[in-house]
Protein 1
Amino acid sequence: MLDTPIHLEYTFTPGIAQSRFLRGLAEGRFVGQRCPVCGKVYIPSRGSCPVDGVPTGEDVALSDTGIVTTYCVVNVPFAGQAIEIPYIAAQVLLDGANISFMGLIQGIPATDVRMGMRVQAVWVEPDELGPTLASVKYFTPTGEPDAPYETFEEYL
Amino acid sequence: MSPAPRARRPVAVVSFAQAHNVRREDERNEVEMLMPVVAEVFANIGITKDDVGFICSGSTDYLVGGPFSFVTALDAVGVWPPRPESHVEMDGAWALYEAWVLLQEGEVDAALVYSFGRSSPGNLAEIMALQLDPYTLAPLWPDPVSLAALQARALIDAGRATEADFAAVAARNRKAALANPKAQVAHDRTVEELLGEEYVVAPLRRHALPPITDGAAAVVLAAGDTARRWCERPAWITGIDHRIETHAPGARDLTTSPSTALAAERAGVGDGPVDLAEVHAPFASQEGIVLEALGLGGNGGAGGAGAGSNGSNGSNGSNGSNGSNGSNGSLVVNPSGGALAANPIMTAGLARIGEAATRIWSGDSNRAVAHATSGPCLQQNLVCVLDAAWEGA
Amino acid sequence: MADRCAVIGVGQTHLKAKREDVSIPGLVREAAQRALADAELTFADIDAVVIGKAPDMFEGVMMPELSLAAALGAVGKPMMRVHTAGSVGGSTALVAAHLISSGIHRRVLTVAYEKQSDSDAMWALSVPQPFAAPLLAGAGGYFAPHIRAYMRRSGAPEHIGRMVAVKDRRNALKNPYAHLHLEDIDMKMVEESIMLWDPLRYLEACPSSDGAAAMVLAAADAVSGSYPPAWVHGMAMRSEPTMFAGRDQVNPQAGRDCAADVYRQAGITDPRADLDMAEVYVPFSWYEPMWLENLGFCPEGEGWKLTESGATALDGDIPWNASGGVLSSNPIGASGMLRFLEAAMQVRSQAGEHQVEGARRALGHAYGGGSQFFAMWVVGSDKP
């Protein structure tokens, strides 16, 4: 066996819609986009409504609170991992959004995380904010009562 | 080997759309590039995604720099409710082939085919080297320009072409591109001017190279009466075939393209007169090889309307015509400007079929040949014959 | 009207963590030659080659079919390369089958492979992209939350996943090609294995394998070989978007639609009764009960009861993954084709020790992406 390392560099283009989302993060807020056909709010939007295939043009400011719809506890180490194991990888559904995205949960023992748990984003220091998801350190429980299962069942 | 496959169900190209070919899409991601193209290919003929029963796309992850790039691209179509859908890690011309095969069976009457290729995010010369044999070639990182230069050198050494031939091909394609609003490179320059350019890799000068392009394209295929309903003069696919050669450039006669010749034979190129060809020859030195293999070479400088004609169509004038093209000499080659005007990887082949079809719709062509290529030095080739008439239809 | 398509040759390599004894061309050729030998044919008898694999980055070779043309006898022939994520092995077989059923070709060789040991698949799946979330969870991290959602929705008890993990590994002991041969596998061993992505334990997840699978497909007038052909009774593909508002990721619509289409073609109204066995893509143990429901083998919410009852065991009334399945061997790009191939082997009565007695009709299934791409076929020993 012979190793032949391959190194390639790429310049990524997030796209128009995702750029708005990223600029929002740099200001410490979540910006989603609404589909003009079905009215659903996507965050982050890749630029289109995956159901209708049309541009999601309208920006929607979302709060930084939401719920954990479902989650797992990551115990497996792998190359490039940014976080010490074990940690909670959760699907977070922000209030006002119609789609969840994967987020890190901290500030609570892994064994205490629940489906339906209310969480809020913890942002980095204002001078550290940037157009990157790293602007959100993690999500942490708000202490509010859990959302009833029926209210988020359709997002699983 | 089985007898030559022949189309038994009439299937036609009925709509085509493409993005503006540009050096670099700075703002839009793949989904945002594709969305207007898909919208346009439907709007052209007044249909929606609900009118197609199959979707097939062509693209490659290495251009984008991440796995599963075709997955997010699907969001440009909106595959809901769920659709029969497939993807080839090949030029979109082969996605069109897959869709055509399915349409032959009769359960589905129309299909959307699309492809996208962004060459700008990475270093294209390095990326394309990864297409080569991983044991013997890729570790040497040969770039596509150098490989094409080897091929061009073989042509010259065999006395089959000159640098002036390459310049003539480039001049004609880019002059034709002036009439193509989606072209990336278009200008009217003389062969003498072009021959004054520096070599990039001898014997190829700047003009013999394709541009580096970000682009996307889409086609709608429809069968029988559906095609006639959506299109006044459908471009019927009377034959389509593709063939591959061995990979190693050293194991092939690079001055010929036997896979193109075989595909052309199987697709029935020689069964009737051809008045237009859209060939996917990224390097100016390759156009003559392809035309000869298609049986369309040796027509001298007879190129007619549209493309303009300031040089021989093929660079192999000494080979003589094989006669399949008739003797009226009315062949137009690459009225779009071909891959020398815009070369979005994974898309340029599909665009050749779309460009040829538009000339059938407009009445400028009655019987056209479109060609797509893949791999180093024309390793794999697809030939598609488009006809304004479907015999017996 | 489509022509009839038959599987007349099957071949697979031994599936292992690392096949350092062969190159990539050597690996695919090994499977192809076994399939040809089974059909009593040579490369010269083949009209076209269709090859599939998962992302090119798994081996670091872009469009590898170009450099594999000679090894697969494809020179001078049409060669296609399919990539539909994890379902690719299945969809590759379907693209090949359509070349027959469309009447275009009479004999087609189809091959799928992965040589994961040549690269780092986990790395390839997690290429750090600047705008993506910094939280990298790997494939299991993607699916584990959906498994949790299934458990919550169905009320399934925890031991169901472990049962599947044990059943499929015991089946693999009867399959000489399978990667994992865990002689001592039992519930306790699974329970004591490390928790990777809670609720998913190490032994409830698939291994990472090198390997290739190949089949020779033929038109009705081109059937050859000593074993009877497996006839294709139905085939279908379906895709849906990765994510959209209100998407059911536990029981995806695309899977249900794909199954309905393939059953319609095959004339199947009750899959549990009408099929004799199924080879279904189950990379994580919990996907057996999830897919039992998705594929209509039982009402929604009751998949785990079917598993618990032993119905899907090799001696049950509807064996699932008699070969040991993806849980026992996972050469990613070939995993889907192996499901299609094993289904064909069963109805040709050539599965040896893991043969389901009297199997005459079987389902082959593959899925990929975020449970969004589906490919299926039903094969039978009777010519339809």
Protein 2
Amino acid sequence: MKKLIISLMLAIMAYGITTAQDARNRTTSTIIADALAQLPAATQQEYNHIMAELASTGKEGLAQIAGMLSPSEKGENAKVEYALHGLTAYLHAEGEETRRDALRQALKEAIDNSTDNPNRAFLMTLLQRCGKAEDGAFFAKYVPDPYLMEWAVNGLIAIDGTEDVLMGLIEAGAPPRDVLAYAAGKKGLAAAEPAILDWCAETRGSDARPYYKALGAIGSKKSLPILSKAAKAQQYGWEADGATEAYVALIGRLAANGDAKTAVDEAKRLMKATDKANIRGAAMQVIFETEGKKALPLLVKALKSPDRAYRVNALRLAEPWADEEVYATIAKTLDGKDNYDTKTDIINWLGTNHVESRIEPIIAQFDSPDPETASAAFKAAGKIGGSKALEALCKRLGSDKSEDASTALLHFNGDVSPGILKALQGYTPMKVAAMKVAATRHINDAAPKIFALLDSEDAAVRETALATLAGVAGANDFDKICTIIEEKGTAASPALGKALLSSAARLPQDQAFSKTMKYLAASKIPQMYYPVLALCGTGEAISHLHKAYSENTGPAKEAALQAMAKVNDSKMADILYEIAVTDDRPDLLPRYAELVDLGGYTPEHKYIMYRKGLDAATDPSAKRLMLRGLASAGTYQALMLADSCQADPAISKTAAEAVRGIMAKNLGTYSGAPVREALERAREIYKAGGSADDGYAMDDINGMLSRLGSATVTPEYQLTPEEKAEGFKVLFDGRSMENFTGNLTDYIPVDGNIYVTATYGNGGNLYTKEEYGDFIFRFEFCFEKEGVNNGIGIRTPMGVDAAYEGMEIQVLDHDAPIYKGLRDYQVHGSVYGIIPAKRIKHKPLGEWSTEEIRVVGDRITVTVNDEVILDGNIRKACQGHNTAPDGSDTNPYTVDHLNHPGLFNKKGHVGFLGHGSGIKFRNIRIKRL
Amino acid sequence: MEKTGRRTFLKQAGLLSLFTIVPSKVLGGPRHIAPSDQLTKGIIGVGGIGRSGYHFNSSEACRLVSVCDVDSSHLQKALDMGQQKLNLKLQGYHDYRDLIHDSNVDIVHIATPPHWHGTMAVEAANAGKDIWCEKPMTRTIGEGKRVVEAVKRNNRIFRLNTWFRFTDNFYGLGTTVEPLKKLVASGLLGWPLKVTISGATGFAWKFFWVGKDNLTPEKVPAELDYDFWLGPAPYKPYNSHRVHQTFRGYWDYDGGGLGDMGQHYMDPVQYILGKDDTSPVKVEVDAPQQHSDAVGTWRKITYTYADGCQIVLEGEGYESGNKIPYIEGPNGKVFKGFECELNGRPVPEIMAIIAELPDPEPQNTDFIKCVRNRELFALNEMNGHRSCTMVNMALAALRLNRTLEFDPVAQRFIGDEAADRLVDQPMRGSWKL
């Protein structure tokens, strides 16, 4: 594992030492290549590690990365882009100022050195993000460049403190003037006004837009004449030169900068000069915001305007300074002869602002001849609330405005019960409307009155009283309702049943049950009480219902069944299922599915229950419910069952959704041919669907298929008869990790291989449990992504850097472009830092290679794909000096000039020195010699 | 003739108004719509969404008169559709400024990719048009602020087009948001609340909206004005994956599934929690590293408000395995399908309880009526900007791959200059706001 120990690196960083080589003597290129191979980082932690590591390479390293961009049209830069974009974000956090400077320098050098415009633009975007004031001159240099001008000027805009540079460019009067003018406007560069005024004078038509815009943003009084003239020439309309907007903006700016008088005068002039509502409104905004309440006369006048946009705008603009006096003045308009639309606007405004003090004139508008005005008044009264509004609204219950009044009472700001109780005493239509509100809001205090009205002489009142009883019934009304039920029998039963249920719901469960049982026992119509038993839902209640179902016939039997179906307890699932099957009641199955879902069952149990449901279901809609349930169970069996349903055209779409849904959550877990085929079938079903969403689903499934492991079953690896005879022992049989120890979290057996899932810098290495001296170690490896780095530790202790405390036989995808600068002793198969191996060309990603490492005394032989790539003597390679003879850190005898204190270990563990994910190993066996 | 007649009349009425009071009924009342009083609209961007039936329609109250697209094949399709489906001869435009300038257009409907929304909305407001804008409202927080200012300055009526705060069943809830709004306002769930927007609670994030890295330049199709399509976005060599149906996968134009669905899902939550005039103070992300150009996926995004309320987004494939509440407070929980628990006990009769609670204040949900009466639409530029800020906050955190703190009043990030530079991002050429 040729990577720096993170803690050590952090320690170095803390002391501000940057070095081209790390403690492991990795070159900058290797550090970069190692890090790039890990990108894009999967987690934030990993990201922080990799970025810290890249940043530690200092300016030299950062420049190297920035220089790694290949011609943009080849489309090969993703890794480098991840690195640079990541570094820009990472180093632009608080506390990273020093290293950010190195990055800025590196970016600038790379921009200067590159000739590829899209790459340069990309690098400039990054510099825009992390640049500082002193980069102003750098950006200024590129302002004349036709391709990079955009990025250059935007850099000046984005970065604070570049005003002087920008001013210098403007004073020089160099092109592109329009772009510089925009920049001056964006940066609020007031000093640019004289120059821009000059430029403006030389320009005509829509070309003047940038200058107008800039003057609107940064101008002073001096810019007023030119902008007001230009705006007037456009009749204050919207034109491509943007004169009107700039003029309006400048007036606003003058107001904001304290020149109130000029601004207000100009705004008033503008208001007189145009009839355009939006422009007059903008001028009014300046006046209102500048003058505050002083502008009240203008507001009053505005309300007389026939232009609704103008009126409403005036009202809205007055909100910040409106007080009781303003409200009083405005509300007076409601008494006048002004048109109804104006009144509607004022009422809406008073309502939105919850002006309680003006409720009376609003109430007066309840009777407006204009329906919209009246309706607005009701709505506003409800929003505002208060006792006067309540009284007035209740008074309208039962009138021709009853509906408006009821709606307002339902969203009324406050408690409506006092008003409703009073209205219940009113004339018949008022009573009827009041009962409905009482029921909707469950005003229990209204119950005695409504009980009394059950006996009203007026049929309409009786009917409404019965219908609204459930809405007001409370816990104390239970006995009363039961008595009425027994008296009136089935005649009025549905509404009474509802009332009974509503009352029971407010009783403690045990009381509801005991009372119900008491009445039920004596009742001629026991089925009236079944829903209450369902609500109680206790074991006793359920068994009573079950009994009633078994022993009764006709309506009573059905009522018991319907009550049982209502019980909100997953225990009912089995009971309902039983009835559905034995008594042929498939209509119960949807409720069964619902109960299973509610039940909190384990996935395995859920699977069994939905499978049963699917067997029993006859119509497609019930089958679909079961399939959706299966999808939520998510087990492998559920997947297979859903797959089998894909063949049934009536439910195939839902089955495909289930297959897709299950796999979306279990992609890492379920694999093999049946899974692949299930997904392929689902894809076909979506394909036949043909809608846009079906298309997305197909893309989704294609993505899953590409990530699905190809192995079907996990075979147990067995030695060939020859190896067996030779005395090899299997270390990894495709399943068990029993011969290994160490990092068993990141090295996991999947589909017969050891997958390395290690995240960078975490977790540690994997070791054989036993130690070995002389041996032949055989295995196969497969790179799954470019630039993988691993290593085989031999004769090494655990938990140390094997390359030095033992030996490391390099495992590296050295063909990856990121390893361009690799030293010969770092290529695949080398005894790291001691003996270089012959450089081979690796097989394509995803293909397996064989390797043998033979270790006999001082002789190491490495064979890859039957080719011997290293055969050397470690003692000879360093002339017997595995450490420096003078005791220093520099050993002239090793090729990496470092000490290898463990090189001559007699024995040790064999280790996998993981350096990130993307590699797998299999068929690992060893023979002691 | 009719069109110009109406315009001339309005203009004269306006001038007249300086001296006399014209009763508004002269301008037509709500009960009868004279042709001269019909509102009109023009659609900018007639690709996927702009040509969908929800937008590409015409009614007595609001007639479609013009369409605009920088892709001439899209434009032609729209013109043909106008003829065939609506029997209308539509005016076609290539340059949206011509549509905005068209005095026959009252309402400008912006259905372009999001990188254009801010610029077009500001220009339309400056031109005195009312605006219907597709979500997400703007691509940056800064552009959203400009839109809010311009709409206010020009006193325009603005509708941000997502609708779940006032109509339609809200995905996993299985009901409209109104009952939940009532329940939350009643205090029965307690405070602060945590909302989880996840596959587990019935909300899917569309992760197929991811971009591709290593794009190679391609030839720009003849029908597409690519430079104009890019507009304020930085120039990058053309690749067909950047435009049309797949643009959401690139930071320059949108923000992936979060850009597409974020405002749909989070705007109602802002409303439910009563946060329409504020924003969270913190956003945390758990995601793989993002590419500089292509939008990737994420696992989890967590927003925290100053009062401790939280919104958690769980990415597709990273949803909680167990049943988790959609909304959870100290005293109660609401699950997918509006299953409810109060004080630790299931409450199957929750809908009955909610029915008894006072209704929320009425909202203005008829856009045409809002335009006529100059009333604020339920989802307007102000609350729309706040819910879009949720999306844009998280996009900034994803791009920087770190937790960000936000000042909801100043609408800037706190102590993170890099994040702050994403509030206002560079705009190209003359498309600067």
